[in-house]
Amino acid sequence: MTTAWLIAPVAVPAMTAAILVLALRHSLNGQRIVSIAATAFQLAVAIGLYGLAGDGEPRAYLLGNWPAPFGIVLVLDRLTATMLLLAGVLAFGVVLAALGKWDRRGRHFHALFQFQLLGINGAFLTGDLFNLFVFFEVLLIASYGLMLHGGGAARLKAGFHYVAINLIGSTVFLFAVGLIYATTGTLNMADLALKMPQVATSDQALLAAGALLLLTVFAIKSAMVPLHWWLPPTYGSTSPPAAALFAIMTKVGAYSIIRVYTLIFGADAGALAGIAAPWILPAGVLTLVLGTVGVLANRSMVDLVCYSLIASMGTLLIAIGLASADGLAAALYYAVQSTIVSAALFLLAGVLKQDAEGRAPLLAPLPQPAFLLALFYFLLAIAMVGMPPLAGFIGKLLILEAGREAAQTAVVWTAILVTSLLLIVGFARTGIRIFWTATPPAKGELPPTAPVVPTLVVGGMIAAVAGLSLFAGPVMDDMTAVAEQLLSPQRYTATVLESHAPPGPVGD
Amino acid sequence: MSMEFLVATGIGALTAAGLYLILLRRTFPVVIGLSFLSYAVNVFLFTMGRLTIDLPPIVDKAAPGYTDPLPQALVLTAIVITFGMTALIVVLSLRAFLETGADDVTLVVPADEEVAGQASDEASS
User: Fold this and answer.
1) All domains of chain B, ordered by start, with CATH?
2) Which of A127, A297, A432, A444 has an alpha carbon 20 to 30 Å from B23's alpha carbon atom?
Protein backbone atom coordinates (compact mmCIF):
# COMPACT_ATOMS: atom_id res chain seq x y z
CA MET A 1 0.00 0.00 0.00
CA THR A 2 1.21 3.43 -0.88
CA THR A 3 0.00 6.95 -0.22
CA ALA A 4 -1.98 6.84 -3.46
CA TRP A 5 -4.49 4.53 -1.76
CA LEU A 6 -5.67 7.44 0.39
CA ILE A 7 -8.03 8.49 -2.37
CA ALA A 8 -9.68 5.05 -2.57
CA PRO A 9 -12.14 5.43 0.37
CA VAL A 10 -13.49 8.56 -1.36
CA ALA A 11 -13.22 7.57 -5.02
CA VAL A 12 -14.59 4.01 -4.78
CA PRO A 13 -18.00 4.87 -3.24
CA ALA A 14 -18.33 7.92 -5.54
CA MET A 15 -17.79 5.80 -8.66
CA THR A 16 -19.92 2.95 -7.33
CA ALA A 17 -22.84 5.24 -6.56
CA ALA A 18 -22.69 6.76 -10.03
CA ILE A 19 -22.61 3.30 -11.65
CA LEU A 20 -25.54 2.19 -9.48
CA VAL A 21 -27.66 5.18 -10.49
CA LEU A 22 -26.75 5.30 -14.16
CA ALA A 23 -26.08 1.75 -15.31
CA LEU A 24 -27.92 -0.51 -12.87
CA ARG A 25 -31.04 1.45 -12.02
CA HIS A 26 -33.41 -1.27 -13.20
CA SER A 27 -31.59 -4.27 -11.80
CA LEU A 28 -31.89 -4.64 -8.03
CA ASN A 29 -29.77 -7.79 -8.00
CA GLY A 30 -27.06 -6.09 -10.02
CA GLN A 31 -27.13 -3.18 -7.58
CA ARG A 32 -26.78 -5.58 -4.67
CA ILE A 33 -23.79 -7.40 -6.14
CA VAL A 34 -21.95 -4.19 -7.04
CA SER A 35 -22.78 -2.51 -3.73
CA ILE A 36 -21.62 -5.48 -1.64
CA ALA A 37 -18.45 -5.86 -3.70
CA ALA A 38 -17.67 -2.15 -3.37
CA THR A 39 -18.32 -2.16 0.38
CA ALA A 40 -16.13 -5.25 0.84
CA PHE A 41 -13.41 -3.57 -1.21
CA GLN A 42 -13.63 -0.46 0.99
CA LEU A 43 -13.31 -2.65 4.07
CA ALA A 44 -10.19 -4.27 2.58
CA VAL A 45 -8.74 -0.84 1.75
CA ALA A 46 -9.51 0.37 5.29
CA ILE A 47 -7.66 -2.65 6.73
CA GLY A 48 -4.72 -1.90 4.45
CA LEU A 49 -4.69 1.78 5.41
CA TYR A 50 -4.84 0.82 9.10
CA GLY A 51 -1.70 -1.22 8.55
CA LEU A 52 -0.12 1.67 6.64
CA ALA A 53 -0.83 4.17 9.43
CA GLY A 54 0.46 1.67 12.00
CA ASP A 55 4.06 2.92 11.64
CA GLY A 56 3.02 6.22 13.29
CA GLU A 57 3.90 8.32 10.27
CA PRO A 58 1.09 10.62 9.01
CA ARG A 59 0.66 10.65 5.24
CA ALA A 60 -0.74 13.39 3.04
CA TYR A 61 -2.38 13.02 -0.38
CA LEU A 62 -2.36 16.23 -2.40
CA LEU A 63 -5.54 16.51 -4.46
CA GLY A 64 -4.69 17.72 -7.96
CA ASN A 65 -1.03 17.88 -6.87
CA TRP A 66 -1.51 21.35 -5.39
CA PRO A 67 0.84 21.72 -2.42
CA ALA A 68 -0.74 22.53 0.96
CA PRO A 69 -1.96 25.00 2.15
CA PHE A 70 -3.08 26.09 -1.35
CA GLY A 71 -4.82 22.89 -2.34
CA ILE A 72 -6.95 20.43 -0.45
CA VAL A 73 -5.15 17.55 1.25
CA LEU A 74 -6.34 14.18 2.46
CA VAL A 75 -4.41 13.09 5.53
CA LEU A 76 -4.06 9.61 6.95
CA ASP A 77 -2.96 9.26 10.54
CA ARG A 78 -3.78 6.67 13.18
CA LEU A 79 -7.07 8.31 14.17
CA THR A 80 -8.29 8.53 10.57
CA ALA A 81 -7.28 4.91 9.93
CA THR A 82 -9.14 3.73 13.04
CA MET A 83 -12.33 5.58 12.08
CA LEU A 84 -12.12 4.36 8.45
CA LEU A 85 -11.79 0.78 9.67
CA LEU A 86 -14.77 1.21 11.99
CA ALA A 87 -16.84 2.70 9.14
CA GLY A 88 -15.79 -0.15 6.84
CA VAL A 89 -16.76 -2.89 9.30
CA LEU A 90 -20.09 -1.23 10.10
CA ALA A 91 -20.95 -0.55 6.46
CA PHE A 92 -20.22 -4.14 5.47
CA GLY A 93 -22.55 -5.46 8.17
CA VAL A 94 -25.30 -2.97 7.34
CA VAL A 95 -25.25 -3.52 3.57
CA LEU A 96 -25.77 -7.25 4.19
CA ALA A 97 -28.56 -6.61 6.70
CA ALA A 98 -30.37 -4.33 4.25
CA LEU A 99 -30.67 -7.09 1.61
CA GLY A 100 -34.09 -8.47 0.90
CA LYS A 101 -36.61 -6.43 2.81
CA TRP A 102 -35.29 -2.94 3.30
CA ASP A 103 -33.53 -2.18 0.04
CA ARG A 104 -36.73 -3.08 -1.85
CA ARG A 105 -38.90 -0.49 -0.09
CA GLY A 106 -37.88 2.30 -2.45
CA ARG A 107 -35.45 2.91 -5.27
CA HIS A 108 -31.75 3.72 -5.09
CA PHE A 109 -31.09 2.43 -1.57
CA HIS A 110 -27.63 1.19 -2.53
CA ALA A 111 -26.69 4.36 -4.41
CA LEU A 112 -27.65 6.49 -1.39
CA PHE A 113 -25.75 4.07 0.83
CA GLN A 114 -22.56 4.51 -1.21
CA PHE A 115 -22.95 8.31 -1.25
CA GLN A 116 -23.30 8.18 2.53
CA LEU A 117 -20.05 6.19 2.76
CA LEU A 118 -18.39 8.76 0.48
CA GLY A 119 -19.34 11.54 2.91
CA ILE A 120 -18.31 9.59 6.02
CA ASN A 121 -14.93 8.45 4.64
CA GLY A 122 -14.23 11.92 3.25
CA ALA A 123 -14.99 13.62 6.55
CA PHE A 124 -12.51 11.30 8.28
CA LEU A 125 -9.79 11.85 5.67
CA THR A 126 -9.87 15.53 4.84
CA GLY A 127 -7.27 17.93 6.20
CA ASP A 128 -9.14 21.10 5.25
CA LEU A 129 -11.87 22.82 7.25
CA PHE A 130 -14.01 23.92 4.31
CA ASN A 131 -13.64 20.53 2.70
CA LEU A 132 -14.88 19.05 5.98
CA PHE A 133 -18.00 21.22 5.52
CA VAL A 134 -18.44 19.86 1.98
CA PHE A 135 -18.10 16.24 3.11
CA PHE A 136 -20.55 16.93 5.95
CA GLU A 137 -23.03 18.10 3.34
CA VAL A 138 -22.43 15.02 1.16
CA LEU A 139 -22.96 12.81 4.19
CA LEU A 140 -26.08 14.72 5.20
CA ILE A 141 -27.79 14.85 1.83
CA ALA A 142 -27.28 11.10 1.43
CA SER A 143 -28.60 10.58 4.94
CA TYR A 144 -31.74 12.60 4.11
CA GLY A 145 -32.37 10.19 1.26
CA LEU A 146 -31.66 7.10 3.36
CA MET A 147 -33.72 8.41 6.26
CA LEU A 148 -36.75 9.05 4.03
CA HIS A 149 -36.22 5.82 2.07
CA GLY A 150 -39.55 4.03 1.84
CA GLY A 151 -41.62 7.11 2.72
CA GLY A 152 -44.56 7.38 5.11
CA ALA A 153 -46.10 10.32 6.95
CA ALA A 154 -44.27 9.90 10.28
CA ARG A 155 -40.95 9.63 8.45
CA LEU A 156 -41.65 12.78 6.41
CA LYS A 157 -42.54 14.77 9.54
CA ALA A 158 -39.39 13.66 11.40
CA GLY A 159 -37.41 14.18 8.18
CA PHE A 160 -38.42 17.82 7.99
CA HIS A 161 -37.05 18.43 11.49
CA TYR A 162 -33.86 16.55 10.67
CA VAL A 163 -33.23 18.49 7.45
CA ALA A 164 -34.08 21.85 9.07
CA ILE A 165 -31.78 21.37 12.08
CA ASN A 166 -28.94 20.29 9.81
CA LEU A 167 -29.47 23.24 7.45
CA ILE A 168 -29.17 25.54 10.46
CA GLY A 169 -26.08 23.57 11.47
CA SER A 170 -24.57 24.08 8.01
CA THR A 171 -25.22 27.82 8.24
CA VAL A 172 -23.50 27.98 11.62
CA PHE A 173 -20.59 25.96 10.18
CA LEU A 174 -20.18 28.56 7.40
CA PHE A 175 -20.26 31.45 9.91
CA ALA A 176 -17.54 29.67 11.91
CA VAL A 177 -15.43 28.97 8.82
CA GLY A 178 -15.80 32.62 7.77
CA LEU A 179 -14.63 33.89 11.15
CA ILE A 180 -11.68 31.52 11.23
CA TYR A 181 -10.63 32.45 7.69
CA ALA A 182 -11.01 36.18 8.41
CA THR A 183 -8.68 36.03 11.40
CA THR A 184 -6.09 33.52 10.17
CA GLY A 185 -6.20 33.67 6.37
CA THR A 186 -6.16 29.90 5.93
CA LEU A 187 -8.48 26.91 6.21
CA ASN A 188 -5.95 24.09 6.00
CA MET A 189 -6.02 22.41 9.40
CA ALA A 190 -2.25 21.91 9.65
CA ASP A 191 -1.61 25.49 8.55
CA LEU A 192 -4.25 26.73 11.02
CA ALA A 193 -2.46 24.88 13.83
CA LEU A 194 0.75 26.76 13.02
CA LYS A 195 -0.96 30.15 12.54
CA MET A 196 -2.90 29.93 15.79
CA PRO A 197 -0.25 31.41 18.14
CA GLN A 198 0.37 34.29 15.70
CA VAL A 199 -3.20 35.63 15.70
CA ALA A 200 -3.32 39.30 16.73
CA THR A 201 -4.71 39.94 20.22
CA SER A 202 -7.48 42.12 18.78
CA ASP A 203 -8.66 39.22 16.61
CA GLN A 204 -8.66 36.58 19.31
CA ALA A 205 -12.23 37.23 20.45
CA LEU A 206 -13.48 36.75 16.88
CA LEU A 207 -11.46 33.58 16.53
CA ALA A 208 -12.79 32.25 19.84
CA ALA A 209 -16.33 32.93 18.61
CA GLY A 210 -15.54 30.97 15.44
CA ALA A 211 -14.04 28.09 17.45
CA LEU A 212 -17.08 27.80 19.71
CA LEU A 213 -19.55 28.13 16.82
CA LEU A 214 -17.71 25.19 15.29
CA LEU A 215 -18.20 23.28 18.54
CA THR A 216 -21.96 24.00 18.26
CA VAL A 217 -22.03 22.39 14.81
CA PHE A 218 -20.16 19.31 16.02
CA ALA A 219 -22.48 19.23 19.05
CA ILE A 220 -25.50 18.96 16.74
CA LYS A 221 -23.82 16.12 14.85
CA SER A 222 -22.80 14.26 17.99
CA ALA A 223 -26.22 14.75 19.71
CA MET A 224 -24.74 16.70 22.62
CA VAL A 225 -27.37 18.06 25.05
CA PRO A 226 -29.13 20.49 24.50
CA LEU A 227 -28.81 19.76 20.76
CA HIS A 228 -29.80 16.10 20.96
CA TRP A 229 -33.58 16.22 20.48
CA TRP A 230 -33.53 15.64 16.73
CA LEU A 231 -31.99 12.17 17.13
CA PRO A 232 -34.76 9.97 18.62
CA PRO A 233 -37.52 10.95 16.12
CA THR A 234 -35.11 10.72 13.18
CA TYR A 235 -33.44 7.42 14.00
CA GLY A 236 -36.65 6.08 15.47
CA SER A 237 -38.73 6.61 12.35
CA THR A 238 -36.23 5.41 9.76
CA SER A 239 -35.59 1.85 8.62
CA PRO A 240 -33.38 -0.29 10.90
CA PRO A 241 -30.42 -0.60 8.47
CA ALA A 242 -30.38 3.17 7.90
CA ALA A 243 -30.50 3.78 11.66
CA ALA A 244 -27.67 1.26 12.12
CA LEU A 245 -25.51 3.12 9.59
CA PHE A 246 -26.43 6.44 11.22
CA ALA A 247 -24.87 5.12 14.46
CA ILE A 248 -21.52 6.20 13.02
CA MET A 249 -22.74 9.70 12.11
CA THR A 250 -22.73 10.80 15.75
CA LYS A 251 -19.14 9.52 15.83
CA VAL A 252 -18.31 11.76 12.85
CA GLY A 253 -19.27 14.64 15.16
CA ALA A 254 -17.12 13.22 17.96
CA TYR A 255 -14.24 12.65 15.51
CA SER A 256 -14.45 16.28 14.36
CA ILE A 257 -14.36 17.50 17.96
CA ILE A 258 -11.28 15.37 18.66
CA ARG A 259 -9.54 16.44 15.44
CA VAL A 260 -10.22 20.17 15.58
CA TYR A 261 -9.68 20.65 19.30
CA THR A 262 -6.47 18.61 19.51
CA LEU A 263 -4.89 19.76 16.25
CA ILE A 264 -5.99 23.39 15.77
CA PHE A 265 -6.92 24.44 19.29
CA GLY A 266 -4.52 22.04 21.01
CA ALA A 267 -1.80 22.75 23.54
CA ASP A 268 0.24 24.88 21.13
CA ALA A 269 -2.57 27.26 20.20
CA GLY A 270 -1.43 30.08 22.47
CA ALA A 271 -4.27 32.03 24.04
CA LEU A 272 -6.94 29.75 22.59
CA ALA A 273 -5.42 26.44 23.74
CA GLY A 274 -8.04 24.05 25.10
CA ILE A 275 -10.91 26.44 24.36
CA ALA A 276 -13.54 23.69 24.06
CA ALA A 277 -12.65 21.46 27.01
CA PRO A 278 -14.58 23.47 29.67
CA TRP A 279 -17.74 23.04 27.59
CA ILE A 280 -17.40 19.42 26.47
CA LEU A 281 -17.17 17.77 29.89
CA PRO A 282 -20.28 19.37 31.49
CA ALA A 283 -22.23 18.90 28.26
CA GLY A 284 -21.13 15.25 28.24
CA VAL A 285 -22.40 14.74 31.81
CA LEU A 286 -25.76 16.34 30.90
CA THR A 287 -25.99 14.23 27.73
CA LEU A 288 -25.35 11.07 29.74
CA VAL A 289 -27.98 11.97 32.36
CA LEU A 290 -30.69 13.00 29.88
CA GLY A 291 -30.00 9.97 27.67
CA THR A 292 -30.44 7.74 30.71
CA VAL A 293 -33.73 9.45 31.62
CA GLY A 294 -34.86 8.77 28.05
CA VAL A 295 -33.87 5.11 28.38
CA LEU A 296 -35.97 4.81 31.55
CA ALA A 297 -38.95 6.53 29.93
CA ASN A 298 -38.87 4.59 26.64
CA ARG A 299 -42.09 3.42 25.03
CA SER A 300 -40.55 1.12 22.45
CA MET A 301 -37.30 -0.71 21.80
CA VAL A 302 -36.30 1.80 19.13
CA ASP A 303 -36.75 4.63 21.66
CA LEU A 304 -34.59 2.66 24.06
CA VAL A 305 -31.80 2.25 21.50
CA CYS A 306 -31.94 5.93 20.45
CA TYR A 307 -31.65 7.21 24.00
CA SER A 308 -28.98 4.67 24.94
CA LEU A 309 -27.06 5.94 21.89
CA ILE A 310 -27.37 9.47 23.32
CA ALA A 311 -26.23 8.21 26.74
CA SER A 312 -23.21 6.51 25.15
CA MET A 313 -22.37 9.76 23.34
CA GLY A 314 -22.46 11.43 26.77
CA THR A 315 -19.95 8.92 28.14
CA LEU A 316 -17.78 9.43 25.06
CA LEU A 317 -17.90 13.24 25.37
CA ILE A 318 -16.94 13.01 29.06
CA ALA A 319 -13.86 11.00 28.07
CA ILE A 320 -13.00 13.52 25.33
CA GLY A 321 -13.58 16.38 27.78
CA LEU A 322 -10.93 14.96 30.11
CA ALA A 323 -8.45 16.16 27.46
CA SER A 324 -5.69 13.74 28.47
CA ALA A 325 -3.93 10.95 26.59
CA ASP A 326 -5.60 8.30 28.76
CA GLY A 327 -9.00 9.96 28.31
CA LEU A 328 -8.67 10.10 24.52
CA ALA A 329 -7.50 6.48 24.30
CA ALA A 330 -10.43 5.37 26.46
CA ALA A 331 -12.80 7.54 24.42
CA LEU A 332 -11.70 5.88 21.16
CA TYR A 333 -12.01 2.37 22.57
CA TYR A 334 -15.47 3.21 23.91
CA ALA A 335 -16.50 4.88 20.63
CA VAL A 336 -15.57 1.82 18.55
CA GLN A 337 -17.49 -0.63 20.73
CA SER A 338 -20.54 1.60 21.29
CA THR A 339 -20.93 2.22 17.54
CA ILE A 340 -21.03 -1.50 16.82
CA VAL A 341 -23.31 -2.24 19.77
CA SER A 342 -25.86 0.48 18.96
CA ALA A 343 -25.90 -0.51 15.27
CA ALA A 344 -26.52 -4.14 16.29
CA LEU A 345 -29.32 -3.02 18.65
CA PHE A 346 -31.01 -1.07 15.82
CA LEU A 347 -30.81 -4.15 13.58
CA LEU A 348 -32.12 -6.38 16.36
CA ALA A 349 -35.06 -4.01 16.88
CA GLY A 350 -35.80 -4.46 13.19
CA VAL A 351 -35.59 -8.24 13.45
CA LEU A 352 -37.97 -8.21 16.44
CA LYS A 353 -40.24 -5.87 14.44
CA GLN A 354 -40.09 -3.35 17.26
CA ASP A 355 -39.55 -0.53 14.79
CA ALA A 356 -41.61 2.58 14.32
CA GLU A 357 -42.64 1.60 10.82
CA GLY A 358 -43.67 -2.00 11.45
CA ARG A 359 -45.57 -0.74 14.50
CA ALA A 360 -45.53 -4.26 15.82
CA PRO A 361 -47.13 -4.19 19.24
CA LEU A 362 -44.83 -5.29 22.00
CA LEU A 363 -47.09 -8.23 22.81
CA ALA A 364 -47.00 -9.81 19.36
CA PRO A 365 -45.71 -13.37 19.08
CA LEU A 366 -41.92 -13.43 19.10
CA PRO A 367 -40.15 -14.40 15.89
CA GLN A 368 -38.31 -17.72 16.03
CA PRO A 369 -35.71 -18.63 17.23
CA ALA A 370 -36.84 -16.61 20.22
CA PHE A 371 -34.15 -17.97 22.52
CA LEU A 372 -31.36 -16.81 20.25
CA LEU A 373 -32.88 -13.34 19.83
CA ALA A 374 -33.33 -13.01 23.59
CA LEU A 375 -29.70 -14.04 24.07
CA PHE A 376 -28.59 -11.42 21.53
CA TYR A 377 -30.63 -8.75 23.32
CA PHE A 378 -29.14 -9.80 26.65
CA LEU A 379 -25.55 -9.66 25.37
CA LEU A 380 -26.06 -6.30 23.61
CA ALA A 381 -27.72 -4.84 26.70
CA ILE A 382 -24.74 -5.95 28.79
CA ALA A 383 -22.36 -4.32 26.33
CA MET A 384 -24.40 -1.11 26.13
CA VAL A 385 -24.86 -0.52 29.86
CA GLY A 386 -21.26 -1.53 30.56
CA MET A 387 -21.45 -4.68 32.63
CA PRO A 388 -18.66 -7.27 32.60
CA PRO A 389 -17.39 -9.11 30.65
CA LEU A 390 -18.06 -7.28 27.36
CA ALA A 391 -16.22 -4.30 25.91
CA GLY A 392 -18.64 -1.69 27.27
CA PHE A 393 -17.45 -2.53 30.77
CA ILE A 394 -13.80 -2.25 29.80
CA GLY A 395 -14.47 1.06 28.05
CA LYS A 396 -16.25 2.56 31.03
CA LEU A 397 -13.58 1.24 33.39
CA LEU A 398 -10.88 2.91 31.30
CA ILE A 399 -12.80 6.19 31.30
CA LEU A 400 -13.22 6.04 35.09
CA GLU A 401 -9.52 5.27 35.42
CA ALA A 402 -8.63 8.21 33.14
CA GLY A 403 -10.94 10.45 35.17
CA ARG A 404 -9.13 9.68 38.40
CA GLU A 405 -6.51 12.37 37.91
CA ALA A 406 -8.91 14.98 36.53
CA ALA A 407 -10.18 17.86 38.61
CA GLN A 408 -13.78 16.73 38.20
CA THR A 409 -13.35 13.13 39.39
CA ALA A 410 -16.38 13.25 41.70
CA VAL A 411 -18.74 14.45 38.97
CA VAL A 412 -17.43 12.04 36.35
CA TRP A 413 -17.50 8.98 38.61
CA THR A 414 -20.93 9.76 40.06
CA ALA A 415 -22.45 10.43 36.65
CA ILE A 416 -21.07 7.28 34.99
CA LEU A 417 -21.72 4.90 37.89
CA VAL A 418 -25.25 6.09 38.74
CA THR A 419 -26.38 6.21 35.11
CA SER A 420 -24.97 2.71 34.54
CA LEU A 421 -27.28 1.37 37.23
CA LEU A 422 -30.27 3.23 35.77
CA LEU A 423 -29.38 1.97 32.26
CA ILE A 424 -29.45 -1.60 33.61
CA VAL A 425 -32.96 -0.94 34.99
CA GLY A 426 -34.12 0.55 31.66
CA PHE A 427 -32.75 -2.30 29.53
CA ALA A 428 -34.06 -4.94 31.94
CA ARG A 429 -37.55 -3.43 31.95
CA THR A 430 -37.75 -3.30 28.15
CA GLY A 431 -36.30 -6.80 27.86
CA ILE A 432 -38.94 -8.17 30.24
CA ARG A 433 -41.67 -6.42 28.27
CA ILE A 434 -40.49 -7.77 24.93
CA PHE A 435 -39.50 -11.34 25.78
CA TRP A 436 -41.40 -12.41 28.90
CA THR A 437 -44.80 -10.90 28.20
CA ALA A 438 -45.04 -11.86 24.52
CA THR A 439 -48.23 -13.69 23.60
CA PRO A 440 -47.87 -17.18 22.20
CA PRO A 441 -49.05 -17.52 18.58
CA ALA A 442 -52.73 -18.37 18.08
CA LYS A 443 -53.65 -22.07 17.89
CA GLY A 444 -52.71 -23.66 14.60
CA GLU A 445 -50.61 -20.68 13.56
CA LEU A 446 -46.88 -20.90 13.16
CA PRO A 447 -44.85 -18.18 14.89
CA PRO A 448 -43.11 -15.79 12.48
CA THR A 449 -39.49 -16.58 11.61
CA ALA A 450 -36.73 -14.05 12.07
CA PRO A 451 -35.06 -12.97 8.80
CA VAL A 452 -31.84 -14.98 8.50
CA VAL A 453 -29.29 -12.47 7.21
CA PRO A 454 -29.96 -9.57 9.64
CA THR A 455 -29.93 -12.05 12.53
CA LEU A 456 -26.57 -13.38 11.38
CA VAL A 457 -25.24 -9.82 11.03
CA VAL A 458 -26.31 -9.04 14.61
CA GLY A 459 -24.51 -12.22 15.69
CA GLY A 460 -21.42 -11.16 13.77
CA MET A 461 -21.44 -7.73 15.41
CA ILE A 462 -21.71 -9.37 18.84
CA ALA A 463 -18.73 -11.53 17.90
CA ALA A 464 -16.83 -8.36 16.95
CA VAL A 465 -17.62 -6.80 20.34
CA ALA A 466 -16.52 -10.02 22.05
CA GLY A 467 -13.30 -9.80 20.05
CA LEU A 468 -12.79 -6.23 21.23
CA SER A 469 -13.20 -7.49 24.81
CA LEU A 470 -10.87 -10.48 24.40
CA PHE A 471 -8.13 -8.46 22.71
CA ALA A 472 -8.65 -5.34 24.80
CA GLY A 473 -4.93 -5.22 25.59
CA PRO A 474 -3.58 -5.00 22.03
CA VAL A 475 -6.49 -2.76 20.97
CA MET A 476 -5.79 -0.38 23.85
CA ASP A 477 -2.09 -0.30 22.89
CA ASP A 478 -3.18 0.91 19.45
CA MET A 479 -5.61 3.44 20.91
CA THR A 480 -2.94 4.80 23.23
CA ALA A 481 -0.71 5.26 20.20
CA VAL A 482 -3.56 7.14 18.48
CA ALA A 483 -3.99 9.43 21.49
CA GLU A 484 -0.24 10.09 21.73
CA GLN A 485 -0.09 10.96 18.04
CA LEU A 486 -3.05 13.34 18.50
CA LEU A 487 -1.48 15.16 21.41
CA SER A 488 1.80 15.82 19.60
CA PRO A 489 0.58 17.16 16.25
CA GLN A 490 3.97 18.55 15.10
CA ARG A 491 4.58 15.49 12.92
CA TYR A 492 1.12 15.91 11.35
CA THR A 493 1.58 19.59 10.46
CA ALA A 494 5.10 19.01 9.15
CA THR A 495 3.95 16.14 6.92
CA VAL A 496 1.06 18.11 5.45
CA LEU A 497 2.93 21.33 4.80
CA GLU A 498 6.15 19.75 3.56
CA SER A 499 4.55 17.23 1.21
CA HIS A 500 5.59 17.99 -2.30
CA ALA A 501 3.79 16.80 -5.35
CA PRO A 502 5.64 14.13 -7.27
CA PRO A 503 6.64 15.52 -10.67
CA GLY A 504 3.75 14.91 -13.00
CA PRO A 505 3.90 13.97 -16.65
CA VAL A 506 2.85 17.47 -17.75
CA GLY A 507 5.43 20.23 -17.98
CA ASP A 508 8.52 18.16 -17.22
CA MET B 1 -22.22 55.81 6.63
CA SER B 2 -19.48 53.43 5.79
CA MET B 3 -19.90 50.41 3.57
CA GLU B 4 -18.89 48.14 6.47
CA PHE B 5 -21.74 49.48 8.61
CA LEU B 6 -24.31 49.00 5.85
CA VAL B 7 -23.20 45.45 5.03
CA ALA B 8 -23.00 44.46 8.69
CA THR B 9 -26.49 45.83 9.37
CA GLY B 10 -27.82 44.00 6.32
CA ILE B 11 -26.35 40.70 7.52
CA GLY B 12 -27.78 41.32 10.98
CA ALA B 13 -31.25 42.08 9.63
CA LEU B 14 -31.23 38.98 7.39
CA THR B 15 -30.09 36.76 10.27
CA ALA B 16 -32.69 38.19 12.66
CA ALA B 17 -35.49 37.74 10.12
CA GLY B 18 -34.29 34.20 9.40
CA LEU B 19 -34.15 33.25 13.08
CA TYR B 20 -37.63 34.67 13.72
CA LEU B 21 -39.15 32.80 10.79
CA ILE B 22 -37.47 29.50 11.74
CA LEU B 23 -39.22 29.62 15.11
CA LEU B 24 -42.71 29.70 13.54
CA ARG B 25 -44.76 26.53 13.42
CA ARG B 26 -45.62 26.28 9.72
CA THR B 27 -43.23 24.74 7.24
CA PHE B 28 -43.47 27.61 4.73
CA PRO B 29 -42.05 30.36 6.99
CA VAL B 30 -39.40 27.91 8.25
CA VAL B 31 -38.21 27.29 4.68
CA ILE B 32 -38.18 31.05 3.97
CA GLY B 33 -36.30 31.60 7.24
CA LEU B 34 -33.67 29.03 6.26
CA SER B 35 -33.24 30.84 2.93
CA PHE B 36 -32.77 34.17 4.76
CA LEU B 37 -30.13 32.58 6.98
CA SER B 38 -28.28 31.20 3.98
CA TYR B 39 -28.36 34.63 2.27
CA ALA B 40 -26.96 36.17 5.46
CA VAL B 41 -24.13 33.64 5.64
CA ASN B 42 -23.29 34.13 1.95
CA VAL B 43 -22.88 37.88 2.38
CA PHE B 44 -20.99 37.26 5.63
CA LEU B 45 -18.52 34.88 3.94
CA PHE B 46 -18.05 37.37 1.13
CA THR B 47 -17.12 40.19 3.51
CA MET B 48 -14.62 37.94 5.29
CA GLY B 49 -12.22 38.73 2.46
CA ARG B 50 -12.58 42.39 3.54
CA LEU B 51 -14.57 44.99 1.59
CA THR B 52 -12.54 46.66 -1.11
CA ILE B 53 -13.48 48.57 -4.26
CA ASP B 54 -12.03 48.51 -7.75
CA LEU B 55 -9.48 45.79 -7.20
CA PRO B 56 -9.12 42.63 -9.31
CA PRO B 57 -9.49 39.21 -7.63
CA ILE B 58 -6.14 38.10 -9.14
CA VAL B 59 -2.63 39.48 -8.85
CA ASP B 60 -2.29 42.13 -11.56
CA LYS B 61 0.89 44.15 -11.86
CA ALA B 62 -1.03 47.17 -13.17
CA ALA B 63 -3.43 47.25 -10.19
CA PRO B 64 -2.43 48.63 -6.77
CA GLY B 65 -3.49 45.42 -5.02
CA TYR B 66 -6.01 42.59 -5.16
CA THR B 67 -9.08 41.39 -3.32
CA ASP B 68 -9.06 37.97 -1.72
CA PRO B 69 -10.61 35.54 -4.23
CA LEU B 70 -10.92 32.63 -1.82
CA PRO B 71 -14.06 33.82 0.06
CA GLN B 72 -15.71 34.31 -3.33
CA ALA B 73 -14.98 30.68 -4.18
CA LEU B 74 -16.29 29.62 -0.77
CA VAL B 75 -19.49 31.62 -1.32
CA LEU B 76 -19.99 29.98 -4.69
CA THR B 77 -19.73 26.51 -3.11
CA ALA B 78 -22.00 27.54 -0.24
CA ILE B 79 -24.63 28.93 -2.64
CA VAL B 80 -24.71 25.71 -4.65
CA ILE B 81 -25.01 23.54 -1.56
CA THR B 82 -27.66 25.64 0.21
CA PHE B 83 -29.63 25.95 -3.02
CA GLY B 84 -29.74 22.16 -3.33
CA MET B 85 -30.66 21.74 0.32
CA THR B 86 -33.42 24.35 0.08
CA ALA B 87 -34.87 22.60 -2.96
CA LEU B 88 -34.85 19.35 -0.99
CA ILE B 89 -36.62 20.81 2.03
CA VAL B 90 -39.23 22.47 -0.21
CA VAL B 91 -40.02 19.11 -1.81
CA LEU B 92 -40.03 17.48 1.60
CA SER B 93 -42.51 19.97 3.06
CA LEU B 94 -44.71 19.66 -0.03
CA ARG B 95 -44.74 15.87 0.28
CA ALA B 96 -45.50 16.10 3.99
CA PHE B 97 -48.33 18.57 3.24
CA LEU B 98 -49.80 16.35 0.53
CA GLU B 99 -49.57 13.19 2.64
CA THR B 100 -50.85 14.65 5.92
CA GLY B 101 -52.96 17.60 4.77
CA ALA B 102 -51.29 19.99 7.22
CA ASP B 103 -48.13 22.07 6.98
CA ASP B 104 -47.55 22.02 10.71
CA VAL B 105 -43.99 21.29 11.83
CA THR B 106 -45.07 19.37 14.94
CA LEU B 107 -44.45 15.64 15.09
CA VAL B 108 -48.15 14.83 15.54
CA VAL B 109 -48.99 11.86 13.36
CA PRO B 110 -52.21 12.29 11.33
CA ALA B 111 -55.45 10.62 12.30
CA ASP B 112 -55.37 7.32 10.39
CA GLU B 113 -51.83 6.48 11.53
CA GLU B 114 -52.56 7.62 15.05
CA VAL B 115 -55.06 4.80 15.50
CA ALA B 116 -52.42 2.22 14.70
CA GLY B 117 -49.92 4.04 16.91
CA GLN B 118 -52.33 4.16 19.85
CA ALA B 119 -53.09 0.50 19.47
CA SER B 120 -49.44 -0.37 19.89
CA ASP B 121 -49.06 2.12 22.73
CA GLU B 122 -51.99 0.58 24.57
CA ALA B 123 -50.60 -2.85 24.00
CA SER B 124 -47.29 -1.78 25.46
CA SER B 125 -48.68 -0.13 28.58
Assistant:
1) 3-124 (1.10.287)
2) A297
